[in-house]
Amino acid sequence: MKGDRVDEYDVVVVGAGGAGLRAAIEARERGQRVAVICKSLFGKAHTVMAEGGIAASMGNVNSGDNWQVHFRDTMRGGKFLNHWRMAELHAKEAPERVWELESWGALFDRTADGRISQRNFGGHQYPRLAHVGDRTGLELIRTLQQRVVALQQEDFRRTGDYESGLKIFQEYTVTRILKEGERVAGIFGYVRESGQFFSIAAPAVVLATGGIGKSFKVTSNSWEYTGDGHALALLAGARLLNMEFVQFHPTGMVWPPSVKGILVTESVRGDGGVLRNSEGRRFMFDYVPEVFRGQYAETEAEADGWYTDPEANRRPPELLPRDEVARAINAEVKAGRGTAHGGVHLDVSTRLPAEQIVRRLPSMYHQFKELADVDITREPMEVGPTCHYVMGGIEVDPDTAACPLVPGLFAAGEVAGGMHGSNRLGGNSLSDLLVFGRRAGQYAAEYAAGLTARPVVDQAQETAAAAEALAPFAGTGEHPYALHQELQQTMNDLVGIIRRAGEMKQALDRLAVLRSRADTLAVAGHRQFNPGWHLALDLRNMLLVSECVARAALLRRESRGGHTREDWPAMDRDWRRTNLVCALDGPAVSVQRQAGEPVRADLLALFDRTELAKYFTPEELAGDDGAA
Amino acid sequence: MATTTKRAAIPDRTLRTDRWWLPQLGTAVGLLLFIGYSTWRAFEGAHYYAAPYVSPFYSPCLAASCVPMRGGADWALVGDWWRLSPALLVLVFPLGFRLTCYYYRKAYYRSFWASPPGCAVAEPHARYTGETRFPLVLQNLHRYFFYLAVPVAAVLSYDAALGFRDGAGHWGHAGLGTLVLLANVVLIWAYTLSCHSCRHVLGGRLRHFSKHPVRYRGWLLVGRLNARHMQLAWASLLSVGLADLYVYLVASGAFADPKFF
Amino acid sequence: MTERRELRIWRGEGGEGAFASYLVEAEDGEVVLDLVHRLQATQAPDLAVRWNCKAGKCGSCSAEVNGRPRLLCMTRLSALPPDQPVVLTPLRAFPSVRDLVTDVGFNYAKAREVPAFVPPPGLAPGEYRMQQEDVARSQEFRKCIECFLCQDTCHAVRDHEENLAAFAGPRFLMRVAELDLHPLDAAAETGLDRARSAQEVHGLGYCNITKCCTEVCPEHIRITDNALIPLKERAADRKYDPLVWLGAKIGLRSGKTTP
């Protein structure tokens, strides 16, 4: 059985968040016909949830900032596991990407001299995050959405058809990438509203599907975050990089239970909020790790002084990178110094006047008022770690965002790996979307335009994909909701924020069982807008990706960034140059070691030797000496 | 993406379970009471002056038939051909101002015209063109009534100042009536200046506040008042009615104005 | 504390359907969407509902709760009468797809009819300078999460489908206002008068400022007071102000917005 309809495009972008839309805009501006496949409605992507801002070293607030400083912060945050070339491109291009948003109508908060205001954030040396209150992600997605509409209006003036050059397919879900030999030939999926199948023939496919958080129980991620792009890439023969690195954001809501996991933006801390345990102690001073000693304040007085005079004081330890703060909170709660609902206090009420809190953190104010009945201008918030972001992702070429093993396949945004190393800094996500979204769009367009012969969609693959998608209707087993809950519990408990070998082996056993149970899933009802069916299709992706996470986590015997092993608590310099790549071999998920590319000498020279010695082996640095 | 064009077939006009009709009922009762009272008083043409107090319904008094008011706004601008109550000559201005006011429009569209009767409650009309055509397109003239409402408020302020005299015209006295007129004029000004057209004229039409700091401050101030426009509309409606009633009671001899000094 | 709540949900497709009742467990502090999810997981696995973030930020889970347009994820059970069933219907102004899901394509079509931001000629990206007080007005409107509750509740189209073509609805009139108030939008230089087009193209006159859009806005944007009325006043500047008209005739005033 083939797809019910077939379209042809030059570039197909799967995902309509920040990276996907930026890629689509770029490819369309380069003259290609572009289709954007959007799992939800247009403009609802998870990008809207980003609160704090877009990191870009424009130097509007502190003129000492530049791309080199941003690069350094990013590498430090990622514990030097980042692909240095991506971090370099990201730091260099982020300001242009922000400025171009303004020319598309974005309205950022301003400095007194009328430029884009920038705020402090964890791990960033200078105020660097362009923001709009605490709803920056919404501004980003809306601006890109409106840019898409502007391009469609241009097309309309030229051709009489809004969708002649760039079309958004809303509530379409991709279940397979179609190939001709090694090359990408198109995509196959289903239309949510009608339940019909569709195929699009296209030589270039950009994956921009975001993250995997819905495999975990406590998460800040929306329903779409089921690792679709990761799984599609695996199934198409691409590989995933360093999937063990999952970021637990230190501050998610912990109460009431229905909102557990919803994000409390880091801006709360950037703007003066402090963390206290149930004894009232500002405990973060006790958790400054060796590698960051000397860069953070050691007394409350010094920390408080930093907000007004950052030159004379070191920054408060609440602004350590996210992995450090998350672990600290976890440790406090475990030691019995947590709040009644199992979190710690995040207090801004005693630090800023109420009027300023409402103005600077409007969505936080409303979120707590309306969901938890807590007035954050009067009382502290209760917060705890929540699964937030996956640093790992599809292995890509740093410059072109192309997957090395699958010609025609590109990836950008959270679904791509490498950029953030073992831990992402706040604010680097939105800039990542823009920088690499644009690059993916550019190189996908160039790839499509440069082809002399287009790949042809293979009907047998469509038939197989359709059969795979319909299988749950003939299933005899359980329904997908229970299975999903078990998966989330497994990942949360056994491959969560603190990991142990025994538990991860147990997790792998459970995942194997879940995978076999998933083969016989049964869904009720018919194909039109059927959430049960949709979840059954998502589960294939979540199970594949979860296995990559668990296998990689078991293999990496060290603690670094978003991967903490209780049985291997130290960071190991030898592991720094080792990437773990996950691939699919038939139905089996396998994880292998792969050497990382040595850091270019001029980039290494941006750091102090003593700092480098904490991360690099003496041989690596000796080699560098020889080169220099 | 449409596979369907039909809305969900739900027969109920509304599924709201709260008493959504209560505010509309309250509005209708309040407005009707005022309309009834003010119509009677406007046509009565008597008991509107009790030195030193003048009813706000009759000031400025523009007909030749006006009671002489010592130092007051009894300007016979209209000749003696006018036979009706002098109130009618001046009430058209505040009436027009309030009739085209953005708040009152909401109030009477909802409570008298059921357009809509309540949010998410189906309205009974077969057609709806809003304010796109005559006569409702004339609502766009609100700003002219605002311009006219300002001098009227100025005259009422003058009247309130005259209240600081005694019946014989000597300054430095005050009675309960003085306070009544004073409170009324404050509310009238607050209502008038909180109007959306005033907000627009002051700063709303500016594109760059940063280039007009004084007008920006004014816009902010009016904006704060404007957020209370509904409350001020009701408060000033009540106060203008009470001020008139007070003068009526004193002028008709039913009540003696207590003098403070 | 667990209790059982009755959910009455309109279920159907393509406009045809009926109410179905379910008893669902409810925990302390839950919102209506939690109950819907529990219902899906336990009794009605194919119940169609849209949702994404479950944090009031994406505007996907719009529906009507006890007859009022609301976000399911921001409606706490404790705010609803405990002794009555929770009545859920799809948005009633939009075509029904299935159960609580409607076809909101109308809004995307209207979005395309509003001409985009026109970048100022002569300013390169990075050279934009704007003051906070000049962007604050438009920023309020950019808080919009496009849940389309205002579009659903506005009686001009909710009760009068014949007006769908002529009326952009509060959300997109607010978009016109946002662009008209943008300190650097150069539409006027291209001959586009946004305030005039609000009246002539996007149906601003259909708005009778009865404020239901403001009442239902989950972002608490003062749509009527800050977007629609200022737009009406600006349109009045252009179309209903004889002084401006006369001034323009004799070349004294341009009738354009003061810089």
Question: What does this 3D model show about the protein?
Answer:
The complex is a heterotrimer of chains A (628), B (261) and C (259). Chain A has helices at 18-29, 67-77, 84-102, 136-159, 228-235, 267-270, 300-308, 322-334, 354-360, 362-372, 428-450, 459-474, 480-494, 501-518, 531-555, 573-576, 601-604, 609-615, 618-627, and strands at 6-8, 11-14, 34-38, 54-55, 118-119, 129-130, 166-170, 172-180, 183-191, 197-201, 204-207, 240-241, 246-253, 274-276, 344-347, 381-390, 393-394, 409-411, 578-585, 588-595. Chain A has 628 residues and is of the alpha/beta class. Chain A has three domains: 6-245 and 391-459, FAD/NAD(P)-binding domain, CATH 3.50.50.60; 250-388, Alpha-Beta Complex (Flavocytochrome C3, Chain A, domain 1), CATH 3.90.700; 469-577, Up-down Bundle (Methane Monooxygenase Hydroxylase, Chain G, domain 1). Chain A has a five-stranded parallel sheet with strand order 7-3-2-11-18. In chain A, strands 1-10-9-8 form a four-stranded mixed sheet, with helices on both faces. Chain A has a four-stranded antiparallel sheet with strand order 17-12-19-20. In chain A, strand 2 (11-14), helix 1 (18-29) and strand 3 (34-38) form a beta-alpha-beta unit. In chain A, helix 1 runs parallel beside helix 4 (136-159), helix 1 (18-29) packs parallel to helix 11 (428-450) and helix 5 crosses helix 15. Chain A starts with 5 loop residues before the first strand and ends with a helix. The mean pLDDT of chain A is 94. Chain B is an all-alpha fold and 261 residues long. Chain B has one domain (21-121, 138-251). Chain B is 51% helix and 2% strand. Chain B is built from eight helices and two strands, in the order H-E-E-H-H-H-H-H-H-H. A two-stranded antiparallel sheet of chain B has the order 1-2. In chain B, a hairpin with a 2-residue loop joins strand 1 (49-50) and strand 2 (53-54). Chain C has helices spanning 32-42, 105-113, 132-141, 149-153, 155-158, 169-181, 194-200, 212-216, 223-239, 242-249, and strands at residues 2-13, 16-27, 62-65, 68-71, 86-89, 96-98, 101-102. In chain C, a hairpin with a 2-residue loop joins strand 6 and strand 7. In chain C, 61% of the residues are buried. In chain C, helix 3 (132-141) packs antiparallel against helix 6, helix 6 packs across helix 9 and helix 7 crosses helix 9. Chain C has 259 residues and is α+β, with helices and mostly antiparallel strands. Chain C has a five-stranded mixed sheet with strand order 2-1-5-3-4. A two-stranded antiparallel ribbon of chain C has the order 6-7. Chain C folds into two domains: 2-102, Ubiquitin-like (UB roll), CATH 3.10.20.30; 105-249, Orthogonal Bundle (Fumarate Reductase Iron-sulfur Protein, Chain B, domain 2). Chain C is built from ten helices and seven strands. Chains in contact: A-B, A-C, B-C. Chains A and C meet through helix 3, helix 4, helix 10, helix 13 and helix 15 of A and helix 1, helix 2 and helix 3 of C. Chain A: Residues 10-430 form the FAD-dependent oxidoreductase 2 FAD-binding domain. Chain A: Keywords: FAD, Flavoprotein, Oxidoreductase. Chain A: It comes from Streptomyces tateyamensis. Chain A: The active site is at 322 (proton acceptor). Chain A: InterPro entries: FAD-dep_OxRdtase_2_FAD-bd (IPR003953), FAD/NAD-bd_sf (IPR036188), Fum_R/Succ_DH_flav-like_C_sf (IPR037099), Fum_Rdtase/Succ_DH_flav-like_C (IPR015939), SdhA/FrdA/AprA (IPR030664), Succ_DH/fumarate_Rdtase_cat_sf (IPR027477). Chain C: Belongs to the succinate dehydrogenase/fumarate reductase iron-sulfur protein family.
